Amino acid sequence: MSTSKKYKRPESLQETKHLYCAGCGHGIIHRLVAEVIDELGVREKTIGIAPVGCAVFAYDYFNFDVTEAPHGRPPAVATGIKRVMPDHVVFTYQGDGDLAAIGTAEIIHAANRGENITVIFVNNTNYGMTGGQMAPTTLIAQKTATSPFGRSAANEGYPIKVCELLSSLEGTKFLARVAVDKPGNVLQAKKTLLKAFQNQLDKKGFSLVEVLSMCPVGWGMTPQAACKRIQEEVTKIFPLGVIKDLTV
Amino acid sequence: MEPAGKKKPIVIIDAERCKGCELCIVYCARKVLGKTKNINKAGYNPAVVADPDKCTACGFCYLMCPDNAIEIK
Asked: Taking CA B22 as the corner, what is the angle to CA B63 and CA B45, rounded to the nearest 5 degrees?
C-alpha cells in the first residue's frame, strides 16, 4: 500500500481556500480523495458528483471534473455518467443529510443495481450546512437545533446505519466505515478510499466508504472535543471497519 | 543528533489559509507547533511553528489539517 510521504497539497486539489468551518472534517476528506486520485494517476478521467450540503462547492476545490446533482440524487447522476463513459472514474461525495435522508431511494437502488461507482458518504450526525439540525444519523440523546432535548427513539426513531443497511443487498461489493478523528484513522481512511477507487478500476462493482467526520460548529464544541466525541460516542454506535468485502 | 546526510524537516504553515482549529497543535507529539495572538485576514489566529528543531516530519499536523495550510519539506 503506497502511503504518500509527500506532505504537500495534492495536484487534484485546487489552491482555492475552503469555505468550511474551522476544524471541519470535509477538508481532510477532500485532501484524501485528491491524494488517492493522484496516486492512481486518473485525474484526467475522473468525474466527481457533488451533493447538496456543506460539500456543495466541491467543484471549486477539486482539480478535476465535478458536477452537481439535485439533493440526494448523486447516485442516479453517477449511474448515468458511468454508463455513458464506462472508462471514466466516477464517484459521488455525499453527506448524511443528502445520502441517508432525501437520497435514500437513490442510494439503495444504485447499490442494488451494483453500479460500478464509488460512493463517499460523510457522516457527521447532523445537517451541517443548514445549521445543525437533526439528521437520520443523529445519535440517540444528541441535542441538535431541531431536537433541543435530545433525539428520542420513541419520537424520532434510531440512527440509520447505512453500511449495515446496504450490506444485505447483493449488488454491494465493498462497504467500509472509517473516521478522520486522529492521524492513524486518517491513514486508514486513505487506504480504504484507495481500495474503493481501485475496485472501480478493476470493475468489481459498487463500493461505499462511510467517513465519520467532525462538525464542531453543528455539535457546539471545539474541534478537539469533536474529535474526542467521535472516539467516545459516535464510533460506539457506528463501529469502524470493513462491513462487507466481496472483492477478494 | 540528526543522522549524517539527513535533511532537517521544515514545517511551513500558510497563515492565510489557517483557520486556527488547533488540530495540528493537539496532535503534534513533540509540541513543535503553538498558538499565536496574530490575526490573519479572515480573522483567525493561525498556528505557528514554535519550536522547529524538535520536528521529526511525522506528518501528523499535515494529516489532520483540514485546510491544507501545512506543508513539510
From this structure: 125
Write the residue in A7, A21, A22 that is nearest to B71 by C-beta: A7
Question: How far apart are the C-alpha atoms of B36 and B38, rounded to whole Å?
Answer: 5
pLDDT at A248: 84
pLDDT tens, residue by residue, B16-55: 999 999 999 999 999 999 999 999 999 999 999 999 999 9
pTM score: 0.94
Given an 8 Å threshold on Cβ–Cβ distance, is B66 in contact with A27? yes
Of B16, B22, B68, the CB nearest to A223: B22
Question: Selecting from 3.40.50.970, 3.40.50.1780, 3.40.50.300, 3.90.230.10, what CATH number does the domain A25-245 have?
Answer: 3.40.50.970
Alpha-carbon span A191 to A241, nearest angstrom: 12
Q: What is the percent of chain A with per-residue pLDDT over 90, rounded to a whole number?
A: 97
Sort B26 into a burial class: Cβ within 10 Å, 0-12 / 13-18 / 19+.
Answer: middle
Task: ipTM value, please give it.
Answer: 0.91
* Integer Cα distance of A234 and A138 in angstroms: 9
Residues of chain B in contact with residue A24, where contact means CB-CB under 8 angstroms, are 66
Cβ contact B20–A22 (<8 Å)? yes
Closest by CA to A218, choosing from A127, A146, A123, is: A127
CATH number for the B15-72 domain, one of 1.10.287.70, 3.40.1280.10, 3.40.50.1780, 3.30.70.20? 3.30.70.20
The torsion region of residue B28 among left (phi > 0), alpha (psi -120 to 50) and beta comes to beta
Q: Which three cell numbers stand for residue A91?
A: 464517484
**B32 CB-contact burial (10 Å; exposed 0-12 / middle 13-18 / buried 19+):** buried
User: Do A9 and A15 form a contact (C-beta atoms < 8 A)?
Assistant: yes
Q: Is B9 helix (H, G, I), strand (E, B) or coil?
A: coil
Across the interface, whether the CB atoms of B21 and A13 are under 8 A apart is answered no
